[in-house]
Design brief:
Its EC number is 2.7.1.159. Keywords: ATP-binding, Kinase, Magnesium, Metal-binding, Nucleotide-binding, Transferase. By secondary structure, the protein is α+β, with helices and mostly antiparallel strands. It is built from seven helices and eleven strands. The strands form two sheets. A six-stranded mixed β-sheet has the order 1-2-11-10-7-8. Strands 3-6-4-5-9 form a five-stranded antiparallel β-sheet, covered by helices on one side. The longest helix has 21 residues, at about 200-220. It is globular.
Length: about 220
């Protein structure tokens, strides 16, 4: 699904949206260092399990700081270049035509000094799901500012068309130090909407629109 974002190459006056460079590893952890070297990915790397069964393990993220620790990871997984983003991500909920955005705390930035000093693999369970909302936190405005509405509307419209989905959410980050450089780091189809503001009204309107659309097609 992230490939759909990469294929869009979305760039306009409101911002540019891409995906971090990534690599899929299906088996054999011992081959990971060579595969990463050949692909040209830059450390540190976020490792995400390919398992999507709702278990705690399926939500676990790992951050690998050095080449030698990569073989400690457990395939199948996706390796994604880590982009510093001020420790905040934007969870964008899409329900039909409706879009809602909430801030969530995320992984902290990694400085060049930390990268040179740290080694190994650090594991983070359910980062964006369990994290407290960052909507009311006292954040740097450059970190907290939401992506522009027109940018999100165009992104959502294109993904609805390309993926054929009406119920999904996106995890979006802003590259630290920029105002309009965004990355989609995850897409979830039919996610949990319990933490989306006003989800009862939005879902009711969505279901009504489906029924009304079906009735109009029958009447026509």
């Amino acid at each position: 699904m992230l490939q759909a974002v990469a294929d869009m190459d979305l760039s306009e006056s409101y911002g540019k949206v891409g995906v971090p460079r990534q690599l899929v590893i299906k088996r054999d952890a011992s081959s990971i260092p060579d595969a990463v070297a050949k692909s040209g990915l830059t450390l540190p790397l976020v490792a995400k399990p390919l398992v999507a069964d709702g278990s705690a393990k399926s939500h676990e993220l790992s951050l690998a700081y050095d080449q030698y620790s990569l073989q400690k990871l457990e395939p199948p997984l996706v390796l994604q270049e880590f982009v510093n983003h001020g420790g905040v991500l934007f969870k964008v909920y899409i329900v039909g035509e409706a879009i809602k955005v909430v801030r969530r705390f995320s992984l902290p930035d990694v400085s060049k000094r930390e990268l040179s000093r740290n080694a190994g693999v650090y594991r983070f369970p359910r980062v964006s799901c369990a994290a407290a909302s960052a909507d009311d936190a006292d954040l740097d405005p450059g970190v907290a500012e939401l992506p522009s509405r027109p940018l999100l509307e165009r992104l959502a419209k294109e993904l609805r068309r390309r993926l054929g989905l009406r119920l999904f959410n996106l995890d979006i980050i802003r590259e630290h130090g920029t105002r309009d450089r965004f990355y989609v780091i995850d897409i979830n189809y039919f996610p949990g909407y319990g933490k989306m503001p006003e989800y009862e009204h939005i879902f009711t309107d969505f279901l009504l629109s489906l029924v009304q659309g079906k009735y109009k097609r029958r009447s026509g």
